[in-house]
Amino acid sequence: MRSACRLCGAALKHTFTDLGMSPPCEAYVPAERLASAEAFYPLHVFVCEECLLVQLPEHVSPQEIFTEYAYFSSYSDSWLAHAKAYAARMVDRFELGPDKLVVELASNDGYLLQYFQGMGVPVLGVEPAANVAKVAVGKGIPTRVEFFGQECAARMVDEGIRADLIAANNVFAHIPDVRSFTAGMKTLLKPGGVITIEIPHLMRLMEGNQFDTIYHEHFQYWSFIAATRMLSDFGLTVFDVEELSTHGGSMRIYARHAEDTARLVGERVRELTRREEEAGFTRLETYFSFDEKVKRTKQNILSFLIDAKRAGKSIAGYGAPGKGNTLLNYCGIRTDFLDYTVDRNPYKHGRFLPGTRIPIHPPEKLRETRPDYVFILPWNLKEEIRQQLAYVREWGGQLVVPIPDIEVLK
């Protein structure tokens, strides 16, 4: 049975890229389960011939992925700085104060809402992962532990909750029932309110060869045109868009009720739509070039690692992100190439990467073993990590990033 497109319902039959079989990217393996089997699922991504939404069929349910989650946003300094700047900008642009309410969907550990709260703006988080939400509550941030969608939004409205600003940062790709999610945003938003959605931009993913952004918790890969269409289907109008450097290139989309004509559609909306059209994002054949590009990058990564090991070099990883697990499993990189990886998140210490079973240690392990190369898996944070790992040069070590192609940093 063919899967159906989440946006328009058409049958999915055209491959965008096929990364083979992989375990869920956040399913870190505890030591006591090393002798147990893991579940692997297809990472075969399709593009809809009707609406051109790029999407991964739902092989793993959100409940399996997000009920207990290993990703805590606050462990990235640059991401916290991004969140703080966003909060300040929203407060200023939309005149948010003590009589307004900011609701973040997929609010994680309170990394963002803490800044609105610190500026005197009431906040509410909605986060399905109880272990992560507990951290936010510990910071004094009110958090509902549930999955957001149309039913959740209706319950919130029945309780008298309506949002002046809805922040949906890095969640719009994570929702298989994205139509219910979008309908819920429409329901929850006050008249005159604003929704902001931050999502990785498909145009940048393709330009930068960012195939490791594909994993089972990312169900959609959005062009601006496709995202605009989804919002329009539910009576939401995009009135502004910003292009961001985060996550290898993202969009911040601003939307409001279609009937709210006070906020006019800006020139940046028309300009980005035009650029996507000129780049071919309204033509099916544009999407077919990506798969071959991915295969060449895999070959280049493996060639570098093989040459390094033959030369007697030691290689350790830095980070244990979801994107890294896609890359390692697709390329077949295990402890024959990476001795171990390190991560700042204590939740992951003593565990092993899914599929590849590479051990995860605290960052101090790098000083102990002094590897020749440090393979940076969260390459989108390479400038932050380059500063953190400046000490690697003390023993002549070098930093390596795999995307958009393998590179030894100078």
UniProtKB/TrEMBL annotation:
The UniProt record lists the keyword Methyltransferase: yes
GO biological process: methylation
Domain C-methyltransferase, first and last residues per copy: 246-404
Record key words, sorted: Methyltransferase, Transferase
Gene3D superfamilies: 6.10.250.3100, Methyltransferase, zinc-binding domain, NAD(P)-binding Rossmann-like Domain, Vaccinia Virus protein VP39
Residue span(s) of domain Methyltransferase putative zinc binding: 5-66
Keyword Metal-binding: no
InterPro entries: Methyltransf_Zn-bd_dom_put, Methyltransf_Zn-bd_dom_put_sf, MeTrfase_14, SAM-dependent_MTases_sf
CDD domains the record matches: AdoMet_MTases
Entry-linked SUPFAM superfamilies: S-adenosyl-L-methionine-dependent methyltransferases (SSF53335)
A Pfam family per the record: Methyltransf_13
Alphabetized GO MF terms: methyltransferase activity
Protein name (record): Class I SAM-dependent methyltransferase
Organism of provenance: Ramlibacter henchirensis
